[in-house]
Write a structure and sequence with these properties.
The protein is of the alpha/beta class. The chain has two domains: 2-177, Rossmann fold (3-Layer(aba) Sandwich); 182-312, Orthogonal Bundle (N-(1-d-carboxylethyl)-l-norvaline Dehydrogenase, domain 2). 46% of the residues lie in helices and 15% in strands. α6 (179-200) runs antiparallel to α8, α6 packs across α10 (256-263) and α6 crosses α12 (293-312). The longest helix is centred in the middle third of the chain and has 22 residues, at 179-200. It is globular and about 55 Å long. The relative contact order is 0.11.
Length: 313
């Protein structure tokens, strides 16, 4: 199976690097600056699961992309989706499968509109990654799961081929028959974790130490209500696990959104929080008579974006 990894950033570089080391047919679609980094230093991953140093990994830039691929692994920031689709459009044929690992849910509709619903799979990853100033990818925890599946949950011949291509490659490749449910649950977790740590500019442990547990639980409950309204109620055992992770005293957990804010770079505020607000039931809007937790974190994160844009203009 010929695999195109769109970008060689933290997520694409990590999973693409693992697949390369496992001998899979992988090509990275990169921009000129990243192409120069890869040519100069190779693909570098520092991970508790084993480091990777892959000199001069196979790569291509959008103007030279002139053939279709079997599988496209899409891991760009959600706000870069339109640019990414333009870049990899030439690689999409009638039988190409697009496996997106973006936050939120809106990208599924946009990918289906741009290409075809038949091209689009569901996907998510559970991993904490970052990049240092040199471009090296840093794996920050012990989890490296990539889940994927048909949006209708079917065990089709094509999804079984994807499972075979991703298996035994140094990460946990999970073929899921309820991938949309899992994507909604992850969105609730990301929206809560990113919303809290980003809005408060602090780790989970610092928020809890400041008596902020009530706000964490309120935000999680509001996100779970949106998921339930959409027909994907967060399962009780999953919600309990999320609550434990998001209220652990002393936890150093922060979202990648906060790290982006600390760097002064764009954030996925509209894709992670704004779209969650847009999808909530009308009865949930300001149900308490005051500012909801979702509205509160949305306001704080939009203020960051407004300041970033003003200072960079």
């Amino acid at each position: 199976m010929r695999i195109l990894i769109v970008g060689a950033g933290a997520i694409g570089g990590y999973f693409g690097g693992r697949l390369l080391e496992a001998g899979r047919d992988v090509t990275f679609l990169v921009r000129p600056a990243r192409a120069q980094e890869l040519d100069r230093s190779g693909l570098i991953v520092r991970s508790p699961q084993g480091n990777i140093l892959y000199p001069s990994p196979p790569q291509v830039m959008a103007p030279m992309l002139d053939q279709t691929f079997d599988l496209i692994l899409l891991s760009c920031k959600a706000y870069d989706l339109d640019t990414a689709m333009d870049a990899f459009a030439a690689a999409v044929g009638p039988d190409t499968l697009i496996l997106p690992l973006l936050n939120g849910m809106a990208h599924l509709e946009r990918l289906a509109e741009r290409f075809s619903p038949d091209n689009v799979l569901g996907g998510q990853c559970l991993i904490s990654l970052d990049r240092d100033a040199s471009g090296a990818i840093l794996h920050l925890n012990d989890t490296n799961q990539l889940s994927f599946g048909e949006l209708n949950g079917g065990l089709t011949p094509r999804i079984l081929k994807v499972a075979e291509a991703l298996a035994d490659a140094g990460f946990d490749a999970n073929l899921s028959q309820q991938i949309v449910q899992e994507m909604w649950e992850k969105w609730c977790f990301i929206a809560t974790g990113a919303g809290i740590t980003g809005a408060m500019r602090a780790s989970i442990g610092d928020v809890i130490a400041s008596d902020g547990e009530f706000l964490v639980l309120k935000l999680l409950a509001e996100c779970a209500s949106v998921a339930e309204h959409a027909g994907y109620a967060v399962r009780s055992e999953v919600r309990q696990r999320f609550q434990a992770m998001l209220t652990t005293p002393g936890s150093k957990m922060t979202a990648s959104m906060l790290r982006d804010m600390e760097r002064g770079t764009p954030i996925e505020v509209e894709q992670v929080i704004g779209d969650m607000i847009a999808r909530r039931a009308s009865s949930d809007k300001h149900a308490s008579g005051g500012l909801s937790a979702l509205d509160f974190v949305h306001l704080h994160l939009k203020a960051y974006e407004a300041r970033r844009i003003r200072e960079q203009s």
